């Protein structure tokens, strides 16, 4: 059980550190601090010694070297071995039992500072101090935030002892913290360098816990939400109204966001259980919403709605008529918020910056994780090839472009039927492509007549074309690339369907 007799403090942000330091002094604990922190505490009439007295030199290289010195680290890393302790005592070196470090705010300034300024905010000595203390947790207690320091003080007994299990837990949290800190720096350097390796031999992802969730995917599972740096996507959204988001809300909001940002025009995407049930664009957000809701109003019940334009009062009044879990938009008129807030259980989120900054996506699997370059929003094949004898009309081609964008954000296998820049039938997440077409046709009903369709991947057989043609679909866009492409082209010509090959697949798992 660590017994706190001597503490080392080093803080970039010194706000309120004098309060914690005063509590330590009141417990009879000797204080040492790095230069700036020592001056700050001295100015607040707190007795403290500067590490400069210990190391024998002031800060070097404009502050780049402060605490990196054997006399400091020996006092942290010394074991309870009596001979080692005696050696330090005879040398006049303090033996630290508590190490608190508030690191340079690299994470908080990722989007605020220039490249050169951020380089100077990479903390070296502070991370080393924390790691040393965490390694020696059986004797030394580490703290990387003022909240952790105050927790330690509150847990001390009358003799300034700290439970060993607590010290061990703090050591674990400290290594997680320094790992996240270093991971964020590594990923920032990689993202900002054109010559960096896309997929390095070692890869890690740093995250900060935003909050504990009520539960995970199901009530018997625990769950939390972490945000990465720089903060983006749904974890960066501002919750303007409503109770805490659930694990499933976060997943559905993420899916809805990628639907909304796929289009330049005002758009609306409605998602339920990660599956879009309505996607549309229009001249105004309200037009897009009406069309997206009409796509599958039954499935939209209790869903998530995302827009890529601000919401006004008129649209809010329409949204208020239906039951949705969450609404996501770049902004809201104040009068629109007044309308939406009439629903107690509705969550309202604002996310001004909706386009992703990251170039990679990470997905966990049992025993590891997968990393890939993202399928960028708005990315479409540059060269389309009309492979049938009948060419699509200008209107059909415009609708085919919309349909393929919609298909990008639906789980594979996907067939989307679209008309008037709106989905009218979505078949997604099915093992069989022809079954996806059958589902899309069933959802579309009579609306499939003179509509177009998109398939996220090639047609393995012509059967999908026959299903679509029988429903009245007149044109299809797909990547092509099947060994049976010739048969599909022949079938399309026979059925009078115009077909385009893009050469770009859009699987989504």
Describe the model.
This protein is an alpha/beta fold. It has three domains: 6-191, Rossmann fold (3-Layer(aba) Sandwich), CATH 3.40.50.1380; 240-350, Cytidine Deaminase, domain 2; 385-501, 3-Layer(aba) Sandwich (Cytidine Deaminase, domain 2), CATH 3.40.140.20. Helices cover 37% and strands 19% of the residues. It has helices at 17-26, 35-43, 51-55, 70-77, 82-91, 115-120, 125-135, 146-155, 164-191, 247-260, 285-295, 297-300, 313-320, 334-340, 394-408, 433-444, 463-471, 485-495, and strands at 6-11, 30-33, 49-50, 98-102, 141-143, 208-212, 224-227, 238-241, 267-272, 275-281, 303-307, 324-329, 347-350, 360-365, 368-373, 385-386, 415-418, 423-427, 452-455, 475-478, 498-501. The strands form five sheets. Strands 8-13-12-11-9-10 form a six-stranded mixed sheet, sandwiched between helices. Strands 16-21-20-19-17-18 form a six-stranded mixed sheet, with helices on both faces. Strands 3-2-1-4-5 form a five-stranded parallel sheet, sandwiched between helices. β12, α14 (334-340) and β13 form a beta-alpha-beta unit. The mean pLDDT is 92.
């Amino acid at each position: 059980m660590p017994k706190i007799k001597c503490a080392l403090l080093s803080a970039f942000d010194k706000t309120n550190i004098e309060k914690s330091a005063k509590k330590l002094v009141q417990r009879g604990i000797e204080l040492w601090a790095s230069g700036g922190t020592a001056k700050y505490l001295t100015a607040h009439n707190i007795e403290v010694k500067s590490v400069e007295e210990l190391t024998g030199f002031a800060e070097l290289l404009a502050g780049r070297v402060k605490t990196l010195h054997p006399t400091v680290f020996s006092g942290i890393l010394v074991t309870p071995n009596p001979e080692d302790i005696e050696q330090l005592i005879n040398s006049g070196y303090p033996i630290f039992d508590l190490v608190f470090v508030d690191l340079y705010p690299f994470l908080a300034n990722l989007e605020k500072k220039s490249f050169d300024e951020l380089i100077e905010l990479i903390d070296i000595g502070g991370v080393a101090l924390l790691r040393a203390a965490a390694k020696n947790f059986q004797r030394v207690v580490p703290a990387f935030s003022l909240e952790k320091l105050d927790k330690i003080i509150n847990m001390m007994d009358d003799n300034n002892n700290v439970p060993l299990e607590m010290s061990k837990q703090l050591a674990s949290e400290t290594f997680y913290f320094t790992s996240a800190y270093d991971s964020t720096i590594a990923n920032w350097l990689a993202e900002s360098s054109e010559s960096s390796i896309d997929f390095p031999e070692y890869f890690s992802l740093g995250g900060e816990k935003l909050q504990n969730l009520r539960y995970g995917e199901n009530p018997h599972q625990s769950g939390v939400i972490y945000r990465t740096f720089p903060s983006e996507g749904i974890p960066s959204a501002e919750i303007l109204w409503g109770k805490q988001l659930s694990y499933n809300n976060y997943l559905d909001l993420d899916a809805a966001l990628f639907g909304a940002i796929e289009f330049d025009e005002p758009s609306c995407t409605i998602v339920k259980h990660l599956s879009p049930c309505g996607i549309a664009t229009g001249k105004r957000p309200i037009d897009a919403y009406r069309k997206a809701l009409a796509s599958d109003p039954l499935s939209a019940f209790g869903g998530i709605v995302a827009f890529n334009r601000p919401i006004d009062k008129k649209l809010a009044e329409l949204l208020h008529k239906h039951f949705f879990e969450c609404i996501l938009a770049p902004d809201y008129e104040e009068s629109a918020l007044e309308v939406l807030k009439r629903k107690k259980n509705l969550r309202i989120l604002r996310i001004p910056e909706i386009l992703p900054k990251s170039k990679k996506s990470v997905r966990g699997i049992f025993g590891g994780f997968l990393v890939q370059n993202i399928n960028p929003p708005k990315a479409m094949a540059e060269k389309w090839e009309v492979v049938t004898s009948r060419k699509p009309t200008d209107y059909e081609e415009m609708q085919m472009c919309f349909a393929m964008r919609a298909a990008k954000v639906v789980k594979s296998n996907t067939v989307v039927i679209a008309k008037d820049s709106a989905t009218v039938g979505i078949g997604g997440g099915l093992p069989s492509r022809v079954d996806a077409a059958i589902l899309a046709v069933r959802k579309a009903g009579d609306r499939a007549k003179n509509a177009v369709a998109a398939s996220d991947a090639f047609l393995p057989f012509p059967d999908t074309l026959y299903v679509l043609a029988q429903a009245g679909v007149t044109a299809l866009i797909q990547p092509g690339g099947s060994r049976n492409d010739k048969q599909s082209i022949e079938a399309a010509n026979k059925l009078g369907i115009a077909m385009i090959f893009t050469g770009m697949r859009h699987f989504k798992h």
